[in-house]
């Protein structure tokens, strides 16, 4: 199993002073985080995409290119590129360029996005939410297959044989389908033969098993080789020396982020009780000591019938710079070896 981290490069207010983090300092800390993740042997680093005042990740490929210059082995991917609001030609060019800079370490996770601010910003109608994604995914996969194509759709000017360059270093640039809880999205990924990245930010892991099974059935029904299926999970997680230390470092930022999200989306404010449940054995947070987190990962793996990749969303603890650094170190040096079986035999 591959283990990695995702960043949303969010700016948070210091709970003690109320001051917002400096954007330049936060960007430097993001790059330091991926550099450290590479040094401690983590497999993948993902950068999110948001278009709002408190986020620095509106151009993830640019941040990942900077990270490529500071790393050697770690794979670099979008956490989810909002394909519906992007030009597939430009997205492919950006990540093909990243693949050349990183010597073959680029990947793309594409999705429709859980936030909608990109749609009006780039002039798209939310009523076309599903149609936009289906059409643009079709175009992106065709571009990946060969540089020159004939293509026509509803939402973009036709392509009449023009070439799309540069081409990536890898023979086939990996493209994952990022999904939430929509059954049709799981079926689409299986039918198209794409690796699946499931965002699980609350509830329990068990409730996603029927959806993952939809993916696996659709995969087989489409005639794809069963051994090539790949299921990944993106979850909120943080590692500390103890369960208590991990929870205390992670809670303030989590509370702020989900309070803000709730205000925007009409959710009730988060509570300490919810957080404690999510960190417990039946919740979907991977927060605790190395032993606690490794056991939780094993639980996720068993529950979903085997997963290929797990990425931690740690950005809610960005104010705790030293704790963040230590969490990444522990994930690479203590948790990952257990999960990979180096200590289990």
Give a structural overview.
- InterPro entries: Bact_Lucif_Oxidored, LLM_Atu2307-like, Luciferase-like_dom, Luciferase-like_sf.
- This protein is α/β, with parallel strands linked by helices.
- The protein has one domain: Luciferase-like domain (TIM Barrel).
- It has eleven helices and twelve strands.
- It has helices at residues 23-39, 60-69, 88-101, 118-121, 129-145, 183-192, 209-221, 243-265, 272-279, 290-303, 321-339; strands spanning 2-7, 44-47, 75-78, 81-82, 106-111, 148-151, 159-163, 175-179, 196-200, 231-239, 286-288, 309-313.
- The strands form two sheets. An eight-stranded parallel barrel has the order 1-2-3-5-8-9-10-12, surrounded by eight helices. Strands 6-7 form a two-stranded antiparallel ribbon.
- β8, α6 (183-192) and β9 form a beta-alpha-beta unit.
- The protein is globular.
- The two termini are 15 Å apart.
- The model has no long low-confidence stretch (mean pLDDT 94).
CATH topology: TIM Barrel
**Would you state the CATH class?**
Alpha Beta
Task: Specify the CATH homologous superfamily.
Answer: Luciferase-like domain
Strand order of the largest sheet: 1-2-3-5-8-9-10-12
Total count of helical runs of at least 4 residues: 11
Largest sheet: 8 strands, parallel, barrel
- The N- and C-terminal alpha carbons lie at a distance of 15 Å
- Element string (H = helix, E = strand): EHEHEEHEHHEEEHEHEHHEHEH
Radius of gyration: 19 Å
Low-confidence stretches: none
Structural class: alpha/beta
The CATH architecture:
Alpha-Beta Barrel
Shape: globular
Q: Mean of residue pLDDT?
A: 94
Tally of DSSP β-strands: 12
The percent of residues in helical segments reads 40-55%
Overall tally of domains = 1
Percent in strands:
15-25%
Protein name: LLM class flavin-dependent oxidoreductase
Pfam families: Bac_luciferase
GO molecular function: monooxygenase activity; oxidoreductase activity, acting on paired donors, with incorporation or reduction of molecular oxygen
Keywords: Monooxygenase, Oxidoreductase
């Amino acid at each position: 199993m591959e283990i990695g981290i995702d960043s949303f490069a969010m700016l948070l207010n210091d709970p003690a002073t109320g001051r917002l983090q400096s954007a330049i300092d936060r960007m430097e800390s993001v790059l330091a985080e991926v550099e450290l993740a590479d040094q401690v042997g983590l497999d993948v680093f993902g950068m999110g995409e948001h278009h709002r005042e408190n986020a620095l990740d509106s151009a993830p490929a640019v941040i990942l290119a900077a990270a490529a210059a500071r790393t050697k082995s770690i794979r670099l991917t979008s956490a989810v590129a909002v394909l519906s609001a992007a030009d597939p030609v430009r997205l492919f060019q950006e990540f093909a360029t990243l693949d050349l800079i990183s010597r073959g370490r680029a990947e793309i996770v594409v999705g429709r996005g859980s936030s909608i601010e990109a749609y009006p910003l780039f002039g798209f109608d939310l009523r076309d939410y599903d149609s936009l994604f289906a059409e643009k995914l079709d175009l992106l996969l065709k571009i990946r297959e060969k540089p020159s194509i004939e293509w026509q759709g509803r939402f973009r000017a036709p392509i009449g044989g023009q070439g799309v360059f540069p081409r990536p270093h890898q023979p086939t640039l990996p493209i994952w389908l990022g999904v939430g809880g929509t059954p049709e999205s799981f079926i689409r990924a299986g039918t198209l033969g794409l690796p699946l990245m499931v965002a699980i930010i609350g509830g329990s892991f068990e409730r996603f098993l029927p959806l993952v099974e939809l993916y696996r059935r659709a995969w087989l029904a489409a005639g794809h080789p069963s051994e090539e299926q790949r299921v990944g999970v993106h979850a909120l997680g943080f590692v500390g020396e103890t369960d208590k230390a991990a929870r205390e470092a992670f809670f303030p930022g989590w509370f702020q982020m989900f309070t803000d999200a709730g205000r925007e989306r009409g959710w009730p404010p988060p509570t300490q009780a919810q957080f404690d449940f999510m960190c417990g054995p039946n919740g979907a947070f991977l927060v605790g000591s190395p032993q606690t987190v490794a056991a939780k990962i094993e639980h996720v793996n068993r529950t979903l019938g085997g997963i290929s990749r797990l990425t931690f969303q740690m950005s809610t603890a960005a104010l705790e710079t030293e704790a963040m650094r230590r969490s990444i170190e522990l994930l690479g040096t203590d948790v990952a070896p257990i999960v990979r079986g180096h200590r289990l035999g």
